């Protein structure tokens, strides 16, 4: 199954195909961290987390793949309340009322080559050069200038933050630094046969946060402009890739395995 996708310069499979790829994603690293640190072990916490993730997936589907909205609503939120449906519509309107976001989202749908190339829900297959672990990433939106001198990555988040400072704090709380580094490196180290950004001179990674409550403000964080943000995120994801490798090498029966892992990204 893997060769089916690795031989193609552009991944054309479904979301289920992507999830089935035997490669490590940033979400896999999040689950590994939660397992080792005991996060979400209570049933109530698990339910709350799954509900939030389902809403997040529906949000991204509305924004980036509106042609599949019917399918995702039935699959992820079969019992969605009317107020949540209205909330999603309001979030979409808020984003499209912003000229910066609207420009790149519309360009991703029109794909006018002379204006640069904007790709949404773009899948990158790559191999981490340090651990040699096969990885995968799915970027919300990546824009490349016509001469491929610059690349811009946009990642959209819903947030409970009410100020720019709170949104920045959440970027550290939810390991967005790790995600940004993982996604940037996916472009730099894309596998042979996959579209490459090795000659790109400048990368920018911007998190766009939209408030889930009134007044539905937008926040933007340029992750690549924050000193140390990407470097620390890179240490984080490579730390957890090493732990993932250790998991694969351990015997199935581990009676003495510690329940809690002390993290160190040095």
TrEMBL record:
Pfam short name (any one): DUF3799
InterPro entries associated with the record: PDDEXK-like_dom_sf, Put_RecE_PDDEXK-like_dom
Domain (Putative exodeoxyribonuclease 8 PDDEXK-like): residue spans on this chain: 48-238
Name of this chain's protein: Putative exodeoxyribonuclease 8 PDDEXK-like domain-containing protein
